[in-house]
């Protein structure tokens, strides 16, 4: 199938294994072949005989919708066949959203309305504290996942690049945390239920990211997430024992 060049994807030829087939996870040396004069042809996977990456001709909105639906093909396209480098910024933004939500709940529980500068400073410090707590919880969750996967399948995480790729996948798949913004802005009686659904959606996305990145079955990613949640809740319990509101 011929398509026009868009300039958003790497050039056709690359080192062996630089890309992945979105259908079978097999290695591919190219996503498409350039026949010049604006004529490109999608490469066919040698393993499954299907197009290596059909998404290179899709609109980004369609790709996003498929990612929201947690389709493995969309995840492989994003993780292996594109040059997306926003995982660090996305992680910081998600942590800020989570810190703001906790800070807002903390302010709602406080009846002090004194506009004194000292009070305002204390409230600002509370936000920084919530950001730090959210960061530690996120770190403990990720550490729990990595420890479980390394213990269960050490051959999957042999090099630094394996860890970096999985970390990138987990951070990108946590984009669902951004949904707390509209949930807070349009506060409703059902907001706690919405926040619970957001949490479940993020965990499902994390599971799919692990499964796609390491080419695993469905059970092991959920096991890793379960131990990640245990470690995260352990950190929460530690903060509560210290008398901190989290």
From TrEMBL:
Any one of the GO BP annotations: regulation of plasma membrane sterol distribution
GO cellular component terms, semicolon-separated: cortical endoplasmic reticulum; endoplasmic reticulum membrane; Golgi apparatus
Positions of transmembrane segments: 127-151, 163-184, 219-239
Compartments, as annotated in UniProt: Endoplasmic reticulum membrane
UniProt keyword Transmembrane helix, yes or no: yes
Transport is among the record's keywords: yes
A Pfam short name: Arv1
Leader peptide range in chain numbering: none
Keywords annotated in UniProt: Endoplasmic reticulum, Lipid metabolism, Lipid transport, Membrane, Transmembrane, Transmembrane helix, Transport
Record's bilayer topology term: Multi-pass membrane protein
Superkingdom, natural source: Eukaryota
Cited function: Mediator of sterol homeostasis involved in sterol uptake, trafficking and distribution into membranes.
Family: Belongs to the ARV1 family.
Protein name, per record: Protein ARV
Organism: Halcyon senegalensis
């Amino acid at each position: 199938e011929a398509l026009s060049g868009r300039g958003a994807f790497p050039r056709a030829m690359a080192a062996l294994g630089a890309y992945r087939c979105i259908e079978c996870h097999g290695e591919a040396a190219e996503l498409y072949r350039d026949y010049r004069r604006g004529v490109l042809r999608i490469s066919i996977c040698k393993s499954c005989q299907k197009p290596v990456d059909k998404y290179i001709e899709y609109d980004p909105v369609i790709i996003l919708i498929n990612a929201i639906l947690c389709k493995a093909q969309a995840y492989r396209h994003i993780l292996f066949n594109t040059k997306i480098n926003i995982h660090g910024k996305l992680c910081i933004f998600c942590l800020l959203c989570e810190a703001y939500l906790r800070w807002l709940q903390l302010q709602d529980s406080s009846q002090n309305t004194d506009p004194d500068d000292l009070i305002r400073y204390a409230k600002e410090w509370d936000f920084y504290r919530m950001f730090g707590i959210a960061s530690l919880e996120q770190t403990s969750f990720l550490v729990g996942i990595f420890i479980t996967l390394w213990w269960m399948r050490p051959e999957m995480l042999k090099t630094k690049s394996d860890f970096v790729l999985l970390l990138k996948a987990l951070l990108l798949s946590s984009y669902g945390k951004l949904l707390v913004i509209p949930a807070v802005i349009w506060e409703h009686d059902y907001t706690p239920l919405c926040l619970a659904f957001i949490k479940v959606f993020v965990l499902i996305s994390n599971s799919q990211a692990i499964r796609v990145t390491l080419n695993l079955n469905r059970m092991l990613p959920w096991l890793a997430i379960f131990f990640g949640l245990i470690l995260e809740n352990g950190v929460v319990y530690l903060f509560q024992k210290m008398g901190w509101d989290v």
